[in-house]
Specification:
Length: 226
Amino acid sequence: MPNFLDRLVELEQKSKQYLNEGESPPQGQSVFQGPRGGRYYEPIHDPTAEERTREVTPKELKLDSITDVELSYAKEVWADAAKKFRHPNPLITNLALNSYFLMNDVVMELGAGSDSKISGIKSERGLEGFIAIKPYENEIYIDKIATAPWNINHSKRRRRGTGSQMLASVFNIALKNEKIERVRVEAITGSKGFYSKIGFVPVEDSKAYLAISRENMEQFLKRYMG
């Protein structure tokens, strides 16, 4: 199994597309001289039609624990994907960048001794998304949740099911503990609509925090698993 440094070298190699002699790069791409000879360009992330429409389903994915090394590696991969992500709508491009920023925050907080429990969804492409939770006496607080930049849908401002899968897993954990009355989250700009559709409602005396009751969690799981 390759170590962390080997993976970073592999990532760097995949980010460069070397040209054959006499070959030209795609229109609008800058050409660079390779450190060991040859010419290359850095492709802009532009998924195929199949990738754009592909939906990630619960049957394909599972919520797993994530090690510090896996998070550090995923941070580099997400940074590379966010850097290459382009969309005519800057708001959608910002969603991809925000995913990386959240990942970076989690890595820094863990290094500072954060007590959040980090889990995520893994696939052959890498870390599809992560969720950081903090259990309290009567609630579970979602500290951070984010999906990989490549899960930002180009045609619609929504993720491809990764966030819902992670929330469903947290709801299952909450419902197994009778003391847990709700799951709470601080909704960032642009995400309140997503949480509202799932069943979250504003917390009293707070403009930022949303919470979902046990009843709404059960209703969501019935819809989600049905």
